[in-house]
Amino acid sequence: MYHPEALAPIITFLRDIGIGVEVGDGGRGGFLSGVNIHAGVIHVHPETLAGSGDLLHEAGHIAIVPQRFRAQLGSDLQVDTDAAIAAETGSPQPEDPVLAMPILQGEFMAQAWSYAAALHLGLSPACIFFPGSYKHTDYAGAHPMQQWLESGTHYGPNALARVGMTGFSGLFAFMGENGLPPFPHMTRWVQA
User: Fold this and answer.
1) DSSP state letters, 155-186
2) Is 180 inside any structural domain?
3) How far is CA 64 from CA 112, 128, 136, 162, 164, in A?
């Protein structure tokens, strides 16, 4: 496992912000090796986990969705998010950004959220962006996703700012001002 030392602080952080984490065999068979989601709770199987930061990424998908939808989230978080929001609103693209952004930008939001969480915890971004993650195996220097976030051109921070979880930053800072400190500072970790 990449960065096993980060696993305990990540689990503690996720539980502290209200995202359930269970350790054991329930983590088998998920979208990512060693991680599975059951009714909005992250199940982790440390022996098969590729990297401790995968927990942060999956938690990012859960965190960006309003709490009332969490119990409907399973191992395919994007499909489940889309279905739960569409069932409530009757639309595959609701107008409310808090509901629309997780549908339109969920993957990017989870990437940005997990990066901000790693920094908040004092962990290296390499615990999220390790060889093989996000289908990048051969690269020099920092992982391409990390470079994209740090260059200020990644779409995730903009979407997080649009739903009020952080302030606008990077290239997207010109898009508006929501009065919040800029990404990677998070004003709130989960949607209510």
Assistant:
1) HHHHHHHHTTSBB--GGGGGG---SSPBTTSB
2) no
3) 11, 18, 25, 11, 10
Residue 168 belongs to domain spanning: 4-175
Q: Residue 124 carries which side chain, given as an amino acid letter?
A: S
Count how many residues are written for the chain: 192
**DSSP H or E run through 99:** helix 97-120
Question: Distance (Å, rounded) from C-alpha 33 to C-alpha 28?
Answer: 7
Backbone angles phi and psi of 44, in degrees to 5: -125, 135
* Token pair in block for residue 62: 């859960």
What is the separation of C-alpha 25 from the centre of its chain, rounded to a whole number of angstroms? 22
**CA neighbor of 77 nearest in space, from 63, 98, 90:** 63
In a domain, 188, yes or no: no
Tokens, residue 142: 């920092």
β-partners of residue 42 are 21, 37
Check if the beta carbon of residue 77 is closer than 8 Å to that of residue 37. Answer: yes
Q: Answer whether residue 108 is part of any domain.
A: yes
Max Cα distance, the chain (Å): 46
> Per-residue pLDDT tens for 2-37?
999 999 999 999 999 999 999 998 888 788 889 999
pTM of the model: 0.94
- DSSP codes, 45-61: -GGG-SBTHHHHHHHHH
Flag whether 71 is in a domain. yes
Identity at 40, one-letter amino acid code: G
Domain count, the chain: 1
